[in-house]
Amino acid sequence: MEALLWFGAFIGALVFLLSLRIPVAVSMGLIGILGTAVFVSPRAVVQIANIAYSQTWSFVLVIVPLFVLMGEVIAISGLGAALFRAAAIWLRRLPGGLAIGTIAASAGFASVCGSSPITAATIGSMAVPEMIKHGYARSLAAGATAAGGTLGILIPPSVPMILFGVITETSIGGLFLAGILPGLMMATLLSATVILQVVMNRSMAPPIVRRVSFSERMRTSAEALPTVLIALMVIGALYAGIASPSETGAFGAAAAVLVALAMGRLRGGVLSQALQKTVRTTGMFMLLLIGGLFSSFVLTRLGVPQDISTYLTGLDVAPWMIIVMINILLLIMGMFLDPLSILVIVVPIFLDTIVGLGYDPIWFGVIVTIQIEIAAITPPVGLNLFVLRTVVPDLSISDTARGAVAFVIPMLVGIVLLLLFPQIALWLPGLRF
């Protein structure tokens, strides 16, 4: 089939450019420009620039720097680390309690941060050394933290969901609400995986015998309370319809700065650091979006999405089998490409197929988000694995990868549950939109 050959050529060209250490956004932009000039028309290259300008001019994109700033302020100021201390104290008596506390803290931090690497780095810098100090297996400590970090892009706010919404013109508010219940489900599955591993091998997480006073519990809970309140207010305002996603982003960023200021956490250039990182992350996001638009334009002009959609929807198989095939492709791509790149490449190609099969784009957005979560912890290009290696230098990549792979299974179970029960993702958006 010609469309599949074009798609295979595109992936091959992308992998070749990435092997030359050319950034993903630049690689996709080059493929888009050269492909348009060679296979469409040199004059059509101007049209690419017009498309990129019109798409990136969208007001909805203001949400990206706002939510990124909120997460960066909470991460750098130390407010995020307080979530781990509180969760670890309250959950420490469970089998693998510190690892479960890490996942719970990651879920809490995810509600104020739309980035998986930031979540993994913020929680991991404190959680992994603490678990190792208490005799936890390095693989369990690293794996639970890397997997917990993936919740940063499922529980809203979520930068990948914003990108998905822009590409597909799907409601970002609907996508955010759709991620809440699957995010909580995924946190539960990851925690259950920790318990199962520890029950099967007690040496992986020795029980903690030190008693914690009631006053210490209250103090650590009070330190985590401001972050929890910010998260509840942001999600509550979005769900109640009081504010749009962009307005909730502005509210969350302002609240994070004001709370950090009131608690004396903005000293030492914290705000300056947060602003610099916000600019870098937003710049990366915009470049990736533009590069994706370039490559999407040439593939669309060559008829790749349309032909693939026609081919797949015309197969004499059940729709769920096609969804399984797409998920297998996503799983394989996740081993070699970074999460956002997968989203930019796959979504424009398969969106028509998903809609043609009768599935909801919001539901597909949640499925793709979980798949790129898996991509963040699967070697050899698992982003969270390298992030943890950076913030905890004495961790080995082999320990981190071995521990993280064990958590791929519950994530796949989560996808299966969403395939069987789509309302897990669609119930909350259905009440609001």
Automatic annotation (TrEMBL):
It holds the Pfam family DctM. One of its GO terms (molecular function) is transmembrane transporter activity. It is found in: Cell inner membrane. It is a multi-pass membrane protein. Residues 12-424 form the TRAP C4-dicarboxylate transport system permease DctM subunit domain. It comes from the Bacteria. GO terms for cellular component: plasma membrane. Keywords: Cell inner membrane, Cell membrane, Membrane, Transmembrane, Transmembrane helix, Transport. The chain crosses the membrane at residues 31-52, 59-84, 96-123, 135-155, 175-200, 221-242, 248-266, 278-300, 320-350, 362-383, 403-428. InterPro entries: DctM (IPR010656), TRAP_DctM (IPR004681). Its main location: membrane. Belongs to the TRAP transporter large permease family. The complex comprises the extracytoplasmic solute receptor protein and the two transmembrane proteins. Part of the tripartite ATP-independent periplasmic (TRAP) transport system. This is TRAP transporter large permease protein.
